[in-house]
Fold:
Amino acid sequence: MTALRFNLAQLLREEMGARRDISFTEPALRLDDDLTLRNISGRLRLTRTAAGVYAQVTVHGVVTLTCVRSLEQFDYELDLDFSDQFYAVVDVVNGHRLPKPVEDDPFMLDELHHIDVGEAIRSYALISLPMNPVAPAYRDQPVNYTVESEGIEEDDAPVDERFAALREWAERQRNQN
Structure:
């Protein structure tokens, strides 16, 4: 549960296609044990559907990542633009439970008709972050893959055939330079 929750009971009482636009800010949203999205601002466009609410979400925030080249931390600006269906669990008019959707791992409104946009932001942020983050200062620098083998003669080194492909690659790299 996050602070990015909004009550949609009134919207759910309206006809299909009814809309609400909401702007929001939030100081921080924990993404996982190590990552926190900060200085969050965004917009929601919520559209009433037969199953609940369709949300179009635009979010901007900053997360601190570790550069894979320098191992230094840096701030990464994250912009998300996604849409997803949020399913109602209780009929807003009669209070009866609604059947679960067939979709795997859907986003749900809670029993009080609140949408928790923070959960969706968390999910989309985690899959949008780079797998190998590189700090801006290192983005334009070429990576040097030079293999140093000073003091070891090729014939003297024990050979493990599992590394044959690596040895061939290193040889090609030396020949190119």
The mean pLDDT is 89. The helical segments are 9-12, 117-128, 164-176. The CA atoms of residues 86 and 107 lie 5 Å apart. The chain has three helices and seven strands.
